[in-house]
Amino acid sequence: MDGYSRDKYPHWIGQGDSCNTREVVLKRDGTGVETGSDCYPTSGTWKSPYDGATWSDPSDVDIDHMVPLGNSWVSGAKEWTNAERQAFANDLTNPQLFAVTDNVNQSKSDRDPDEWRPPLESYWCQYSTDWIEVKHHYELTITTEEKTALEEMPASC
């Protein structure tokens, strides 16, 4: 993690219509989401794929980076430009950003699948598939332990 800082990944940038990346993901991943003129949700519900919990207060929901910023740093992103890291941190195209239970996201932190897996085992298949897709798209490396975990998780498919 030498040299890593979240500040090197400008995130929650403007996405148009007064919305930032976090607000776009909250609208995308929620049900019945209504927003104010500032784009912040005023109502809606969010079901976390990691633990199956449902939330109605957006402050109980974090936006998780499938491949955490710190993990991307040690997997190759430290060589990227700030613009490339910003694109990674705000990626709405690949399976990189998800609305999840805040304390579950905090327990994940910057860990990879050999150190952390979603509590909901029925999500392991999708989780491993998404992790591999993001790592592949961004040409990030994986460790031997990470590869072993990723090979085990699809057994839940």
Textual characterization of the structure:
By secondary structure, the chain is an alpha+beta fold. It has helices spanning 21-29, 69-74, 82-89, 102-108, 124-137, 144-152, and strands spanning 14-16, 19-20, 30-35, 41-47, 54-55, 61-65, 97-101. A 3-stranded antiparallel beta sheet has the order 3-4-5, with helices on one face. The protein is globular. The model has no long low-confidence stretch (mean pLDDT 96).
* Number of distinct helices: 6
Order of helices and strands: EEHEEEEHHEHHH
Proportion of residues in extended strands:
15-25%
Order of strands across the widest beta sheet? 3-4-5
Q: Taking all residues together, what is the mean pLDDT?
A: 96
Query: What structural class do you assign from the helix and strand content?
Result: alpha+beta
Overall strand count: 7
What is the overall shape? Answer: globular
Which residue ranges are poorly predicted, with pLDDT under 50 across at least 5 consecutive positions? none
CA radius of gyration is 16 Å
Query: What's the main sheet like?
Result: 3 strands, antiparallel
Helix content: 25-40%
Q: What is the first-to-last residue Cα distance? A: 33 Å
